[in-house]
């Protein structure tokens, strides 16, 4: 008799594939990196094969790993569909969600996939903009929810603290030898820029604001060209670039607090369930057991946007 697949093992396996690393997958499934490694090892032992080809820089699927991935996704989809068909309310409608592009690509993709499985009749419109631009849109009820960096204008329900890291084309990029140090920065007024400049000033490092952009891709382009170093959230670092730090003479940067903020008109089931799903899936606390989020957790007064 063949051993049965453990859904948790399959979920962890998919998380490793989608994030490209055991470290990033650990945040997705709310487990330690060691626990993720043990789960993958357990899955490989059960199947009697290697699922990942590992080297110092990349993590890629073996042929059996590619085969398992297709079936694992189908098994999890059926698992979610079976659960939602029995226990979820019939929720339908539309939600307008705002988030910076780097948060959408690095954090929200699995949340949106899961939510759409649970609530297939809900239409989601995504507005990609920086947190500084989303604050007035939220206050004017132009968007329902915002997955953003917390500041004095955006005080929603806390989701996670995301580390900021220095990024360069390589660990020995020639840019590091320049004085003043050429730095690419997010747009004026954003918390990420404030934290970056505070770290440089606190370490008394001579720098110049060589580039400024509201887009992660704009900043990454300056790094690819070998023109600057940048500071971004760790979850959004492209795999081709190098994470820098104290070994390269760069200071630690204070992390960003990510929240789900809500507009005044968001007091309806579609918004309740999407807000709860983001908090549940992206919180770095203990993993929750029920696939169905508790919407009451995201309807507290503290989760609405504070007016400036």
TrEMBL record:
Keywords of this entry: DNA-binding, Transcription, Transcription regulation
Stored InterPro entries: LTTR, LysR_HTH_N, LysR_subst-bd, WH-like_DNA-bd_sf, WH_DNA-bd_sf
Family matches, as Gene3D superfamilies: Periplasmic binding protein-like II, Winged helix-like DNA-binding domain superfamily/Winged helix DNA-binding domain
Composition skew (Polar residues), residue ranges: 286-308
GO molecular function: DNA binding; DNA-binding transcription factor activity
Pfam families: HTH_1, LysR_substrate
Record SUPFAM superfamilies: Periplasmic binding protein-like II, Winged helix' DNA-binding domain
Disordered: annotated segments: 284-308
Annotated ranges, domain HTH lysR-type: 5-62
UniProt family annotation: Belongs to the LysR transcriptional regulatory family.
Entry protein name: DNA-binding transcriptional LysR family regulator
Organism: Paraburkholderia bryophila
């Amino acid at each position: 008799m063949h051993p049965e697949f453990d859904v948790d093992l399959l979920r962890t396996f998919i998380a490793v594939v989608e994030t490209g690393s055991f470290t990033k997958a650990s945040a997705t499934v709310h487990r330690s990196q060691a626990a993720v490694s043990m789960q993958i090892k357990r899955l490989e032992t059960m199947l009697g094969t290697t699922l990942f080809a590992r080297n110092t820089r990349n993590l890629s699927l073996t042929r059996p790993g590619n085969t398992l991935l297709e079936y694992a996704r189908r098994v999890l989809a059926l698992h979610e569909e079976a659960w939602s068909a029995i226990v979820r309310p019939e929720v339908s409608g539309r939600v307008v969600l705002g988030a910076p592009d780097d948060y959408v690509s690095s954090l929200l993709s699995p949340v949106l996939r899961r939510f759409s499985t649970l609530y297939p009749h809900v239409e989601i419109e995504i507005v990609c903009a920086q947190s500084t631009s989303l604050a007035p849109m939220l206050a004017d009820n132009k968007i329902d929810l915002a997955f953003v960096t917390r500041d004095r204008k955006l005080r929603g329900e806390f989701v996670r603290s995301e580390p900021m890291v220095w990024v360069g084309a390589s660990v020995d990029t020639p840019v590091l030898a320049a004085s003043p140090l050429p730095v690419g920065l997010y747009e004026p007024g954003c918390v990420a820029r404030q934290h970056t400049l505070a770290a440089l000033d606190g370490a008394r490092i001579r720098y110049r604001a060589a580039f400024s952009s509201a887009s992660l891709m704009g900043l990454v382009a300056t790094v690819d060209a070998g023109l600057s170093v940048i500071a971004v959230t760790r979850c959004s670092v492209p795999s081709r670039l190098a994470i820098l730090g104290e070994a390269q003479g760069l200071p630690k940067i204070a992390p960003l607090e990510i929240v789900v903020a809500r507009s005044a008109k968001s007091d309806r089931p579609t918004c309740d369930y999407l807000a709860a799903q983001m908090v549940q899936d992206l919180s770095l606390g203990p993993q929750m057991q029920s696939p169905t989020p508790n919407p009451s957790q995201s309807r507290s007064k503290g989760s609405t946007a504070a007016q400036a």
